User: Which sequence fits this backbone?
């Protein structure tokens, strides 16, 4: 647990199945039970110490853990929940900043990444970028997806609030490129 002031706490009991443990750092806590080994937590902690938004640090920490063996029992589900107080939309007013999950999947982390990208594109405020910088990719995406134009795709996917005809939200463009099967060239 990490409180609103960044104080982190964890507890690992003595009767947990091996390997179990936790690492508490500046503004984060990583922990697990029935893990492949301590390297799982160490890889998560290294990622949490880096830069970026909290939801992406968590996403990448989960991926780092999986790359070191993750949970010894295998994979099935994954979730990210970040609570926050604020104004801006109905979710923030309810205390929800990010709340995404994938249940009962053979490979949950790639799906969780996709769902997190959609959440970000739909609900979070973000930097707007000039579409002229990505015209070639956008035109290729329009062709691959078989849509009339980029505006049509934006409207079909309810992203109108993040598109003004000249600029688009970074995460919306990432979702568009991914859905068109085009390698991402948009920096987070």
Assistant:
């Amino acid at each position: 647990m990490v409180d609103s002031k960044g104080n982190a706490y964890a507890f690992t009991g003595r009767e947990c199945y091996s390997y179990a443990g936790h690492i508490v750092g500046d503004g984060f806590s990583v922990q697990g039970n029935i893990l492949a080994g301590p390297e799982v937590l160490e890889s998560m902690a290294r990622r949490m110490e880096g830069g970026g938004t909290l939801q992406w640090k968590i996403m990448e920490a989960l991926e780092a853990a999986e790359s070191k063996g993750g949970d010894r029992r295998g994979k099935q589900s994954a979730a990210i929940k970040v609570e926050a107080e604020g104004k801006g939309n109905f979710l923030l007013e309810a205390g929800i900043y990010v709340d995404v999950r994938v249940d009962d999947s053979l490979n949950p982390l790639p799906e969780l990444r996709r769902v997190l990208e959609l959440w970000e594109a739909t609900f979070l405020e973000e930097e707007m970028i000039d579409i002229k910088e990505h015209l070639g990719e956008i035109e290729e995406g329009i062709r691959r997806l078989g849509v009339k134009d980029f505006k049509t795709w934006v409207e079909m996917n309810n992203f109108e609030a993040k598109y003004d005809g000249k600029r688009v939200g970074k995460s919306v463009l990432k979702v568009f490129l991914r859905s068109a099967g085009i390698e991402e060239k948009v920096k987070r």
